[in-house]
Design goal:
Order of helices and strands: EEHHH
Strand content: 5-15%
Number of helices: 3
Strand order of the largest sheet: 1-2
Helix content: 55-70%
Oligomer: single chain
Mean pLDDT: 82
Number of strands: 2
């Protein structure tokens, strides 16, 4: 992450953070840190952190629970493609491989 620093006529300096868009989903949020910078009460920040942690746990449990179904669907897709359609089969196998790599190699 970059930043731009500016000097104001009053002599104060300001800093603006710059962001670069990239594909994919963010692994974490900085909302709580933004709240801290905005001087929100510590008890509010701690409550937000507890709720965020719980939501992450719920999402991870759902991801783990859905993994076997997702893999079964991807395998079924590979098996039902006409063998003469090499492009579709290659895409289906790539989808399966990418999903396996992204979801980790432990368990199913």
């Amino acid at each position: 992450m970059g930043y731009v620093e500016q000097q104001l006529p009053s002599g104060e300096s300001t800093i603006s953070f710059t962001y670069k868009l990239s594909p994919g989903m963010a692994r974490s949020s900085f909302g709580i840190e933004c709240g801290r910078l905005a001087h929100m009460p510590e008890e509010v920040l701690q409550a937000a952190k507890r709720h965020a942690t719980r939501m992450q746990e719920i999402m991870e449990a759902r991801r783990v629970a859905n993994r076997p179904r997702k893999i079964a669907g991807l395998i079924k897709n590979c098996l039902t493609i006409d063998g003469r359609d090499a492009d579709s089969l290659a895409r289906a196998l790539k989808d399966l491989t990418v999903f396996h790599k992204l979801s980790g190699s432990t368990g199913i």
